[in-house]
């Protein structure tokens, strides 16, 4: 089994794991949710609060997937600029999506406050940094675009940026004041608890292995042979999608993102490395992202091996990158390493599909899903309880389209990453 979730810094911080029991007997509920990450747990919380009976079935335990082991960065928005969505989707639909995606951190913060989740939430902002001179124009254009929509973003020239991060490797960047960071496993477990308090039944170790319609209900069967009947089903498996829904796994590429956590920084480096305590992600094809967490550890992520790994040695390129930014890190050492699957889609956008009568799925956050997936829980819940229609979900409904030559696509991703690394090494 994939053990990478156990070596995340967040799992190591929690000596006792919370275990939800497997689904046992035949059960019935209004709504079944497959997958206990942020998408599923937030949808469950909101649907239960609206009065529905909800059951979450998770193959491992809540937060086991990307949700409990990501970089913990809260980065508002999507891969393209806000005006791109208005041009593509029109004023009304475009605004709906822009509003949700760029206010996702505010929405997440409201959920955390309302439910009292203790997950070390901080709102010092998110920095988008231009690595090369050639990147400045694009990063600046994004900042201008966001400002035109009234968003709270400020341009940082090279020296202003250097003061916030503690090195002068970047050409410039912008600070989005709405961003921040948190402990994602504590968020996932907090959402599970809040959903449970609202009446949701949560089951771990319950992989759904078959899904069929009996004319009235969806009938879900788990790996242990237990069944659940429900009128509506939301599939939230993202990068961990298996073959339960034909074609779903082939509609995304599960790209591994790897993370290293340093030992706690010594006193002389606490104010030297990321003194502003923002989250940061770099420009470029191979995105490197980092922050210093509330325990003063540098948490830095990027691309590593395209297979599960728990060894800091396997992530030497990320360590070298960190040490090139702050050479003093060499004395600090790495506490732990892990990786997990990001669901990448062909257009780098999240996809929402109404698959059948009462059967829905949403996936494809492309590495930017902590705030967005949690924020989407509310509209998804409204859909599941019948308050809104599928065309009112801010991510426009589309038809599921398996990627042609899917089996070969990961190699294309590999090749792109290798090429990008090579180009970057020439630029240094
Ligand atoms: C290493 C890493 C770093 C990241 N860093 C950031 C970051 O800093 N900021 C950011 O915004 N985003 C980040 N992301 C992305 C973010 O974590 C995800 O977009 C988000 O967590 C997706 O949540 P989810 O609920 O859709 O999916 P997941 O959390 O992946 O949950 C899917 C769940 O479905 C379950 N499942 C699968 N099949 C079945 C089945 N048949 N039956 C039952 N259960 C099933 C899996 O066990 C899994 O727990 C990162 C991702 C990774 C992997």
UniProtKB/TrEMBL annotation:
<dbReference type="Pfam" id="PF01266">
    <property type="entry name" value="DAO"/>
</dbReference>
<feature type="domain" description="FAD dependent oxidoreductase">
    <location>
        <begin position="30"/>
        <end position="383"/>
    </location>
</feature>
<protein>
    <submittedName>
        <fullName>FAD-binding oxidoreductase</fullName>
    </submittedName>
</protein>
<dbReference type="InterPro" id="IPR036188">
    <property type="entry name" value="FAD/NAD-bd_sf"/>
</dbReference>
<keyword id="KW-0560">Oxidoreductase</keyword>
<dbReference type="InterPro" id="IPR006076">
    <property type="entry name" value="FAD-dep_OxRdtase"/>
</dbReference>
């Amino acid at each position: 089994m994939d053990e990478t979730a156990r070596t995340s810094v967040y799992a190591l911080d929690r000596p006792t794991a919370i275990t939800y029991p497997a689904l046992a007997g035949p059960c019935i509920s209004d709504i079944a949710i497959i997958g206990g990450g942020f998408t599923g747990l937030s949808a469950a919380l909101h649907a239960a609060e609206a009065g529905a009976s909800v059951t979450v079935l998770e193959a491992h335990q809540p937060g086991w997937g990307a949700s409990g082991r990501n970089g913990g960065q809260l980065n508002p928005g999507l891969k393209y600029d806000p005006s791109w969505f208005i041009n593509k989707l029109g004023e009304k639909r475009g605004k709906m999506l822009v509003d949700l995606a760029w206010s996702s951190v505010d929405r997440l913060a409201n959920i955390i406050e309302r439910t009292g989740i203790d997950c070390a939430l901080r709102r010092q902002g998110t920095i988008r940094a231009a690595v090369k001179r050639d990147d400045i124009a694009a990063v600046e254009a994004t900042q201008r675009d966001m400002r035109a929509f009234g968003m709270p973003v400020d341009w940082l020239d090279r020296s202003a940026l250097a003061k916030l991060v503690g090195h002068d490797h970047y050409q410039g960047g912008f600070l989005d004041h709405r961003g921040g960071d948190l402990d994602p496993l504590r968020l996932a477990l907090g959402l599970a608890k809040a959903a449970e308090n609202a009446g949701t039944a949560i089951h771990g170790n319950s992989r759904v292995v078959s899904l069929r319609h009996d004319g009235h209900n969806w009938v879900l069967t788990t790996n242990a042979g237990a069944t659940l009947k429900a009128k509506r089903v939301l599939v939230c498996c993202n990068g961990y999608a298996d073959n339960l829904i034909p074609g779903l796994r082939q509609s995304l590429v599960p790209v591994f993102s790897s993370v290293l956590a340093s030992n706690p920084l010594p006193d002389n480096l606490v104010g030297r490395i990321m003194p502003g305590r923002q989250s940061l992600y770099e420009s470029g094809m191979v995105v490197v992202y980092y922050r210093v967490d509330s325990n003063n550890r540098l948490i830095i992520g990027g691309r590593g091996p395209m297979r599960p790994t728990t060894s800091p040695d396997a992530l030497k390129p990320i360590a070298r990158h960190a040490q090139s930014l702050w050479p003093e890190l060499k004395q600090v050492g790495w506490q732990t390493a892990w990786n997990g699957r990001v669901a990448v889609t062909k257009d780098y956008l999240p996809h929402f599909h109404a698959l059948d009568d009462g059967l829905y799925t949403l996936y494809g956050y492309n590495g930017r899903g902590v705030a967005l997936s949690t924020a989407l829980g509310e509209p998804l819940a409204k859909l599941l309880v019948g308050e809104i229609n599928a065309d009112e979900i801010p991510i426009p409904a589309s038809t599921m389209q398996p990627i042609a030559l899917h089996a070969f696509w990961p190699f294309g991703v590999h090749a792109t990453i290798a090429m990008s690394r090579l180009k970057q090494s020439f630029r240094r």
